[in-house]
Amino acid sequence: MEILQIDLFLFLEKLLLIGGIITFSLVIAMYTTYAERKVAAVIQDRLGPNRAGPFGLAQPLADGLKLFFKEEIIPLTSNKVLFIIGPALAMMTAMLTSAVIPWGSSINVFGRDVSLQIADVNIGVLYVFGVVSLGVYGIMIGGWSSNNKFSLIAAVRGASQIISYELAMGLSLIALLMLTGSLSMKTIVEQQMSGGWGGFLGWNILYQPLGFLIFLICVFAECNRTPFDLPEAENELNFGYHQEYSSMKLGFYLFAEYINMFISSAVVSTLFFGGYDIPFVNETTLAASWGGNIVAVMGFAALFAKIVFFLFLFMWVRWTIPRFRYDQLMDLGWKKLIPLALANMLITAIVILWLNK
Amino acid sequence: MASLTNRSKVLEQTPLNFMERLYLPNIFKGMAITFSHIFKKKATISYPEEKRPFSPVFRGLHVLNRDEEGRENCTACGLCAVACPAEAITMEGAERQKNEEHLYREEKYAAKYEINMLRCIFCGLCEEACPKDAIYMSETFAPSNFTRQGFIYSKDELLIPDPTTNKEGYEAARGLREAQIKK
Amino acid sequence: MTIIEILFWFLSALALFGALMVVFSKNPVHSVLWLIVVFFAISGHYIVLNAQFLAIVNLIVYAGAIMVLFLFVIMLMNMNTESEPQKSKWLRMAAALSGGSLMLILVAALKDNTSKVTGMFTAEANIGLIKNLGKVLFTDYVVPFEISSVLFLSAIVGAVILGKKENSTTHS
Question: Above 60 in pLDDT, residue B83?
């Protein structure tokens, strides 16, 4: 077994990468809160936060500091251990997915090829599903341990919503996996990069538009974002499953939502939009003339641009579409998306068989 | 059910057709609308830096006037206090002494002049009642204070700057006033 | 001791401890959460055996879906030690007896099989990878696979019938 001889440099390299990605996603999540407020403001013809720092750029810091200095309240009748585990779980599951996302092609540091992916597991997509399906525990444990009926209702709502949409999400992806024939995120990206027009024609969105749409809707539901934000519906459930939380524990829940958004944007970009592929540019010829490292950084920038677009889409939809009613939500999930995803799967399979003949 | 007024409108509710049941076209339409709002003019006024333009008849906090030589216009005639429907103005008159000609324009002046801004309803009747153009209403508004006592403005707080000592302040205050009159 | 062995012992201890806590926890919600810990430990074992696909599917299906439903029911029923009726002495005796005999059978069955297990482990180390697993499932084990799918289908149909509102025609 190769695990026994751990290369010290590999260990260091991965440690640095993990630290870097965690810091990166935290910073991004911080500024996503800022962007959310700014986007909400401009869509509603307002200016948004502009007092703390230039253009209000220090606003997330101010918010974070405020949360840190708030009083830590643990309700007397709550289940204390679970009450603390809840937000920790939410944060952890939000972060875990970033391990299998290829953030870029490998870069060359001191003669070593360093892959910009923490773990290239051969079941990357399934791993994402596994982590997503665990994400529901943060909500459930938090909501139940608060010992508050609104929190409990919100937790039950959130859990059933996430379970329902996971199915459609998985089915929509199966069609994609039939095309790629691999569960590894890196392989999926590399396949897309090898398409025509510098990779653009290889993007899976062109072959799976319906699958993409279903997947995107399910991602919205999994992230508990408007139109699917029933677990935290302010006007019916006060504040949802994190109603009893205060201080940084509340901050963890709110933060986890934004990290989830960031990571799922990354997953969508990777699976359907070519990941770190720069459209209309052939990376290998460019790498020969400009050097691999620059191209890798550019690829990362391309991925980041795609992620930013999806983050914007999240916010744009949030400030456009009103919330679903609960029966509508379940109706959409079970009666519309799942049959659609199944049909998509069948059609894809038939087309693949027909083309191979 | 029989109609009571014959004015009720029957709402036509046809079942949604396929495109409407897809919802997506309408969602895209809505998103296009919200996107267009990003480029619209913002309604926000960044208050302390920018201010909303006032109408020429805006009635803000009161100011007691001086003439060009820095003498107070008010003669403590009491007409403003009589005109005030909220009874917010109190004053005490005093006679001008020999060496005080540079301070007061007429022989009589207000030794004490107080307006209770909590009682004032900013109707502007005092301004209209004044025969000496001594009191007028500025564009300052929204006073703030920690105590109720602080809202009873004394004469020092109401007087505009003295042109002999603070020329610029006086010009600014008068300029505002003149612009207001011209409008 | 190699890393694999350390991992094995750690995961085994975790699984056993979690399983014991499932039984001994007073609060049913805690029991469910400990059961999830057990599933994690088992998934860890799968990964040690190089069966990543099984590990993840175990997590998705058991920890991610089934346990959530368990948790659902338990949270909504709000069970606790006061409201839970105490089982009679005879019932407890019978449960202990049947559990004990099940363990006896398991021990008897697995007592001599150590050599076979290690043999399988070394021979087909990649059995857990998705490609091999799929091939085996759809060639050697295709009949049981399809039969189990029929079982699931019947379960789905049953759930739909149970969940469906009664038609107005049945009332008239």
Answer: yes
ipTM over 0.90: no
Domain parsing of chain C, residue ranges: 1-80+117-125, 129-163
Distance CA B182, CA A166 (A): 70
Q: Where are the domains of chain A?
A: 73-356
> What's residue B7's pLDDT?
81
User: What structural domains does chain B harbor?
Assistant: 62-182 (3.30.70.3270)
Kindly give the pairing relationship between strand B89-95 and strand B62-64: unpaired
The answer for A119, left when phi > 0, alpha when psi is -120 to 50, beta otherwise, is beta
Element (H, E) at B109: strand B108-116
Q: Show the tokens assigned to A158.
A: 């959130």
Nearest CA among C36, C52, C34 for reference residue C128 = C52
Indicate yes or no: CB of A320 within 8 angstroms of CB of B38: no
Interface B:C, ≥3 CB–CB pairs < 8 Å: no
Interface of A with B in 311-340 (CB under 8 A): 316-317, 319-321
CA distance A166 to A172: 10
Predicted confidence at residue A230, as pLDDT, reads 76
Residue A233: phi, psi to the nearest 5? -65, 110
The CATH code that applies to domain C1-80+117-125 is: 1.20.120.1200
How far apart (Å, rounded) are the C-alpha atoms in residues A106 and A299?
10
**B182 pLDDT above the threshold of 80:** no
Q: Above 50 in pLDDT, residue C122?
A: no
CB A276 within 8 A of CB A303: yes
Question: C-alpha angle A345/A349/A350, rounded to 5°?
Answer: 120
Angle between helices C130-139 and C142-163 (to 10 degrees): 90
Mean pLDDT of A283-306: 82
Contacts of C35 in chain A (CB under 8 A): none
Say if residue C91's pLDDT is above 80: yes
* CA–CA separation, C132 and C120 (whole Å): 15
